Amino acid sequence: QVEHPVTEGITGANLPACQLLIGMGVPLTRIPYIRTLYGKDPKSAEPFDPETTPQRPPESHVVAVRVTAEDAADGFKPTAGRIDELHFRPTPDVWGYFSVKSGGGIHQYSDSQFGHLFARGETREAALRAMAAALRDCVVVRGEIRTTTDYVLDLLASPEVTNNLIHTGWLDSRIAARVKPGRPPWHISVIAGAVVKSAAAVAAASSEYLGYLAKGQLPPAGISLTRMEHTMVIEGFKYAVTLVRRGPGWAAVALNGSSVEVAYRKMGDGGFLMQVDGESHVVHYEDEAAGTRLLINGLTVLLAAEADPSRLTASSPGKLMRRLVPSGVRVERDQPFGEME
Predict the structure, then answer these.
(1) Which residues of 134-165 are buried (b: 16+ CB within 10 A; e: fewer)?
(2) What is the pLDDT of residue 2?
(3) The Biotin carboxylation domain covers which part of the protein (predicted)?
(4) What is the pLDDT of residue 221?
(5) How far apart are CA 52 and CA 199, in angstroms?
């Protein structure tokens, strides 16, 4: 039972220890954990009937979450690739384990689950809050893979879960309805994208500028270290953004005639700490074939690369098994055109 920590958190019984004692021939009613569960003295040998003796009230409520390398925004399609950073900070109310570590990866033949979290609380609401806080603040997974953490965060905040109105078919109906995980506000995504892309542009321009100086040449006037223009595609919308640097870690981002001030600094792990309108945002990013994926306060958004509509490409590695339509034939929207393994 992979969820045995749930049972242990509710009952206070160490299940592997109980199994070991049973294998050694110790009667069930003599095991201290079982006696405590039924309100009996754990050191006593007094017999009792587990079938008729009531158990003590549960110690707590426990919620379990599996962390999987799946893309919830794409029908929970498994993903594979390297893991640049994996960090979990346990709390008094949340415990978990992971089967991989930073620098590792998930290959296409492995199980998509690589982590398991367990949160406990005096009430169901407290356990849900502890789990949500852990997923938001204590679990960091960055790399080529996608995870379900942002989808689970959105799921935990849904009225059906908070009001305990879920049933065995609820999750399937939610998936069939294509409920998407939460996304950062669009303007925060645009500003974060401008900061990330401008930082890369400044680094490249600075290297080029210094290269000219090292050769004793005058750098061309076209190399700018203060003004950058970017075009980003987010959720099907195209944004033409201008960022003007006003000092170290300080810039103005302009879009459609309006602008906003943003303060930012690069962190030790390669991400950015960004402040907009008095609110702080932690931004990480990962370049991939489909574009640049931003992780903003635990929520993901894709800055999609402009794609050639005449090319049909797959966003994940695999083997093309067969083509369902011949070359040169018109493909309609949502029409399958190939099978991949």
Answers:
(1) bbeebbbbbbbbbbbbbbbbbbbeeeebeeee
(2) 63
(3) 1-176
(4) 82
(5) 69
Q: What is the total residue count of the chain? A: 341
Residue with tokens 């009230």: 57
Give the CATH number for residue 125: 3.30.470.20
Kindly report the pTM of this predicted structure: 0.71
Rounded Cα distance, 203 and 291, in Å: 19
Q: How many helices (H) and strands (E) does the chain have?
A: 8, 18
The pLDDT value recorded for residue 317 is 67
pLDDT of residue 56: 92
- Structure confidence at residue 44 (pLDDT): 92
The answer to whether the beta carbons of residues 18 and 31 sit under 8 Å apart is: yes
DSSP conformational letter for 219: P
Residue 285 one-letter amino acid: Y
**CATH code for the domain of 244:** 3.30.700
pLDDT at 19: 94
Residue 222 lies in a domain: yes
Residues of the chain with pLDDT under 70: 1-2, 315-317
Q: Residue 338: inside a domain, yes or no? A: no
Domain edge (last residue) among 122, 143, 176: 176
Question: Cα–Cα distance between 140 and 122 in angstroms, integer?
Answer: 26
Instruction: For the chain, state the CA radius of gyration.
Output: 26
Nearest to 81 by CA among 289, 324, 323: 289
47 within domain boundaries: no
Token pair listed for 246: 């006003």
Residue whose structure tokens are 């039972």: 1
One-letter amino acid of 21: L
- Give the range of the structural domain holding residue 146, as residue numbers without chain letter: 61-176
Q: How far is residue 334 from each of residues 128, 237, 281, 320, measured CA to CA in Å? A: 37, 20, 36, 18
Evaluate whether residue 25 is within a structural domain: no
The pLDDT of residue 290 is 77
pLDDT the model gives residue 1: 52
Backbone angles phi, psi at 253, to 5 degrees: -110, 125
